[in-house]
């Protein structure tokens, strides 16, 4: 943690190498987050690029270096929201047809997740796919922990309701 805070402080003073190191540490987390919000690899790449550019341009505005991770994730989420709200968001040419049952279930869950209201989808993605705690998600989204807990519970119920057909079968 001390090394991480040190790198953020160096980056805030204009050290480009320190900024690059920070981004390299978080690139996998950011990419995985983008994959859960967006279906198109080009959109994910665009969002990653925009996130890095915005973070580089505004790192001096970060008040507390220990919240770099939270701040960076918030930028990423805002960029994803822009793309999702700007497009109808399904192109048959981008769709990869599944090969086996596990891939079918994975695609079905991703489709359900993408179709979920963002107030439930964002906490679910941050919690289950990116491994953030309720407290960290609370900081990222600037919402009380109780609100995050209830959105996680409600999101799980909505996914379960949509995943299991009324006849008792799986999608």
Layout: helices, strands, pairs:
Blueprint: H1 2-12, H2 16-37, H3 41-58, H4 68-86, H5 101-115, H6 118-129, H7 134-141, H8 145-163
Report on the structure:
With 171 residues, this protein is mostly helical. The protein folds into two domains: 1-89, Rna Polymerase Sigma Factor, Chain: A (Orthogonal Bundle); 99-171, Orthogonal Bundle (Arc Repressor Mutant, subunit A), CATH 1.10.10. The protein has eight helices and no strands. The radius of gyration is 18 Å and the shape is globular.
Structure, briefly:
The protein has 171 residues and is an all-alpha fold. It folds into two domains: 89 residues, Rna Polymerase Sigma Factor, Chain: A (Orthogonal Bundle); 73 residues, Arc Repressor Mutant, subunit A.
Mean pLDDT, to the nearest integer, reads 80
Oligomer: single chain
Shape: globular
Largest sheet: none
Strand content: under 5%
- Determine and state the CATH class of the largest domain: Mainly Alpha
Considering the chains and any ligands shown, give keywords for the structure.
single chain; 171 residues; mainly alpha; Rna Polymerase Sigma Factor, Chain: A; Arc Repressor Mutant, subunit A; 2 domains; globular
């Amino acid at each position: 943690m001390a090394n991480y805070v040190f790198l953020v402080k160096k980056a805030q003073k204009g050290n480009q190498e320190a900024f690059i190191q920070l981004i390299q540490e978080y690139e996998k987390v950011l990419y995985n987050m983008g994959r859960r919000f967006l279906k198109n690899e080009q959109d994910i790449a665009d969002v990653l690029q925009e996130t890095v550019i915005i973070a580089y341009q505004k790192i001096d505005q970060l008040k507390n270096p220990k919240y770099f991770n939270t701040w960076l994730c918030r930028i990423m989420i805002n960029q994803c929201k822009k793309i999702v709200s700007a497009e109808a968001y399904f192109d048959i040419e981008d769709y990869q047809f599944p090969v086996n049952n596990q891939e079918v279930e994975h695609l079905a869950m991703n489709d359900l997740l993408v179709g979920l209201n963002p107030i439930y989808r964002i906490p679910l993605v941050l919690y289950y796919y990116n491994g953030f705690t309720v407290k960290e998600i609370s900081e990222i989204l600037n919402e009380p922990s109780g609100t995050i807990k209830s959105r996680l519970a409600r999101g799980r119920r909505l996914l379960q309701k949509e995943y299991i057909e009324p006849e008792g079968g799986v999608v």
